[in-house]
C-alpha cells in the first residue's frame, strides 16, 4: 500500500492537528482537516484563549523539521537554565545542560500563528493533498461503516467517510468521548488541585529584560509557586500556581499585594503593582487536567493524538513536545515501517506510546512537587552530584537533560534514572560501611 491510497480526516486544527496534516501530506496521504473555529485569515484572531508559554525541546523541534517548519526560531527565546528565587532574596542558577544546549520558550499565540500561516497558505495552496474546512464541528462516528458526522457553518449535519479518522481535538476531545462508548476502552480524567493565572512582566523602560533573559525563573514557596518564561519582545509570561482555595482568599487588591509582599517581594517592582492587580483580576484561574486512556485507537478506523489521548500537567515542559508533536513524528515513522497498513500502524502506535505517556504524565505531576522543594539541601546536593557525575561519566544521565535533548523513550530514560538511583544509594551505603569499619578498627586498637 502507498500513502496516496489512504484518505485521512483530522478533527481539530490546533497545534497537533496542523502538524499532523503537514506530516501526513509529506507521505502523499490525502488529508481533510476539520476545524470548528473560523478561518484565521479572515478573522485575524490566532489566540486560542491560553497565554501560557510553551517550551520547545529536541523532541518537538525534530517533529517540526519533519513537517518542513525550519524557521520556528524567529518566534522563540532560548532557555539555558533555571533561576531559583529564594524567599530570602538570593538567587541560585541551575544550568540546563553541561554541553551548552538549550530549550526554547515560545508564546502559544506565536506558534499558533506560525502553524496557521504555514498550514493554511503553504500546505493548502502548494499541496493538493490537504483540504481545510472551517466552522465544522465533530458530532459522532459510525465505526462499523467508517462514517462520521459534522455540524457545518449553517448548523446543517454532514455525513463524511474516511479510511482513518484522527482526533486532535484537545483534552476535552469529542472524538475520545465517542471512543469511550466502545467496549474495552479505558479512560480517566482528573483535575489538579492547583489552578493558575498568567501575568505579564513588561520590559524595562529601556526595552530590556527585567531579569536574565535566558532563564526560566521560578519562586518555590511550599504550597504556591511563581514561574516566568521570557518572550521575544523582552517581556515575561509569569504563571502563578496555587490551590484554588488561596485564589478565592485573594479577593481584594490589598490582599493580593500583601500575599505577594509575603511570598514574592522581589517580583512586585519587576511586574509593577498596577499591572499585577490588573492582570490578576482580569480572568479567573484556569484548571489543569490529566487525561489517561488506553488504547489510543479503535481497530484500524480511528485514533487520537496529543492532549486528546493523554493531556498532562505543564510542569516538565514536555506536553507539547512529547504528547503532541512527537506523536505526529512517531505516527509518521510507523506508517513507513508498516507500509501504510493501518491494521498494524494503529496498534503499534498505542503499544509504543502508552507506557511513555503514563510515565511522562506522572513525572509532570512529580516535577511540580520537586520544583516547590528546590530550596531543600537534599535536592540541591543531589542536583550537584548528578551534574558532576554526568561531566565525568557521560553515560550518567541527568533526567531532565535526557528528556529534553534526546529522543530516547521516556520509559528508557526513567529506567536509567532508577538504575542510577540504586547505584548511588548502594555506593553511599558502601562508603558509610567502610568508614564505620575503619573507625571501629581504630577504636579497637586503642
Automatic annotation (TrEMBL):
Spell out the molecular function terms from Gene Ontology: FAD binding; kynurenine 3-monooxygenase activity
A Pfam cross-reference name? FAD_binding_3
Annotated InterPro entries? FAD-bd, FAD/NAD-bd_sf
- PROSITE patterns under this entry? PROKAR_LIPOPROTEIN
Cofactor(s) recorded in Swiss-Prot or TrEMBL:
FAD
What keywords tag this UniProt record? FAD, Flavoprotein, Membrane, Monooxygenase, NADP, Oxidoreductase, Pyridine nucleotide biosynthesis, Transmembrane, Transmembrane helix
Q: What sections of the protein cross the membrane?
A: 6-25, 423-444
Q: Name one GO cellular component term.
A: mitochondrial outer membrane
BP-aspect Gene Ontology terms? kynurenine metabolic process; pyridine nucleotide biosynthetic process
Name of the protein in question? Kynurenine 3-monooxygenase
Provenance organism: Caerostris extrusa (Bark spider)
**What is this organism's lineage?**
Eukaryota, Metazoa, Ecdysozoa, Arthropoda, Chelicerata
Amino acid at each position: 500500500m502507498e500513502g496516496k491510497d489512504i484518505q485521512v480526516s483530522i478533527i481539530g486544527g490546533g497545534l497537533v492537528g496542523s502538524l499532523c496534516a503537514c506530516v501526513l501530506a509529506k507521505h502523499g496521504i490525502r488529508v481533510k482537516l476539520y476545524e470548528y473555529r473560523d478561518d484565521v485569515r479572515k478573522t485575524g484572531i490566532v489566540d486560542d484563549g491560553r497565554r501560557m508559554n510553551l517550551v520547545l525541546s529536541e523532541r518537538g523541534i525534530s517533529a517540526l523539521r519533519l513537517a518542513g517548519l525550519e524557521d520556528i526560531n524567529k518566534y522563540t527565546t532560548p532557555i539555558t537554565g533555571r533561576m531559583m528565587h529564594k524567599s530570602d532574596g538570593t538567587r541560585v542558577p541551575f544550568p540546563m545542560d553541561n554541553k551548552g544546549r538549550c530549550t526554547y520558550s515560545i508564546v502559544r499565540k506565536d506558534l499558533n500563528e506560525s502553524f496557521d500561516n504555514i498550514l493554511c497558505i503553504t500546505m493548502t495552496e502548494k499541496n493538493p493533498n490537504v483540504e481545510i474546512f472551517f466552522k465544522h464541528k465533530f458530532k459522532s462516528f459510525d465505526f462499523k461503516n467508517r462514517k462520521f458526522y459534522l455540524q457545518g457553518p449553517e448548523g446543517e449535519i454532514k455525513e463524511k467517510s474516511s479510511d482513518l479518522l484522527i482526533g486532535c481535538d484537545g483534552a476535552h476531545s469529542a472524538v475520545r468521548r465517542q471512543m469511550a462508548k466502545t467496549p474495552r476502552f479505558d479512560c480517566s480524567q482528573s483535575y489538579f488541585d492547583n489552578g493558575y493565572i498568567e501575568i505579564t512582566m513588561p520590559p524595562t523602560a529601556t526595552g530590556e529584560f527585567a531579569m536574565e533573559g535566558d532563564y526560566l525563573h521560578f519562586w518555590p514557596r511550599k504550597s504556591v509557586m511563581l514561574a516566568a518564561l521570557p518572550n521575544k519582545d523582552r517581556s515575561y509570561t509569569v504563571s502563578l500556581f496555587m490551590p484554588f482555595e488561596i485564589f478565592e482568599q485573594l479577593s481584594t487588591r490589598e490582599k493580593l499585594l500583601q500575599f505577594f509582599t509575603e511570598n514574592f517581594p522581589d517580583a512586585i517592582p519587576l511586574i509593577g503593582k498596577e499591572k499585577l492587580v490588573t492582570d490578576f483580576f482580569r480572568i479567573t484561574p484556569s484548571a489543569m487536567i490529566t487525561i489517561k486512556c488506553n488504547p489510543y485507537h479503535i481497530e484500524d478506523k480511528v485514533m487520537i493524538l496529543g492532549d486528546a489521548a493523554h493531556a498532562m500537567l505543564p510542569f516538565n515542559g514536555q506536553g507539547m513536545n512529547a504528547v503532541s508533536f512527537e506523536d505526529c513524528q512517531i505516527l509518521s515513522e510507523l506508517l513507513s515501517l508498516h507500509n501504510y497498513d493501518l491494521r498494524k500502524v494503529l496498534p503499534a502506535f498505542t503499544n509504543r506510546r502508552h507506557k511513555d505517556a503514563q510515565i511522562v504524565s506522572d513525572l509532570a505531576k512529580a516535577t511540580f512537587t520537586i520544583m516547590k522543594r528546590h530550596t531543600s539541601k537534599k535536592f540541591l546536593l543531589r542536583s550537584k552530584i548528578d551534574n558532576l557525575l554526568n561531566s565525568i561519566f557521560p553515560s550518567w544521565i541527568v533526567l531532565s537533560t535526557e528528556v529534553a535533548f534526546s529522543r530516547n523513550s521516556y520509559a528508557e530514560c526513567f529506567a536509567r534514572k532508577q538504575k542510577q538511583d540504586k547505584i548511588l544509594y548502594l555506593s553511599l551505603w558502601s562508603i558509610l560501611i567502610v568508614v564505620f569499619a575503619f573507625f571501629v578498627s581504630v577504636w579497637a586498637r586503642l
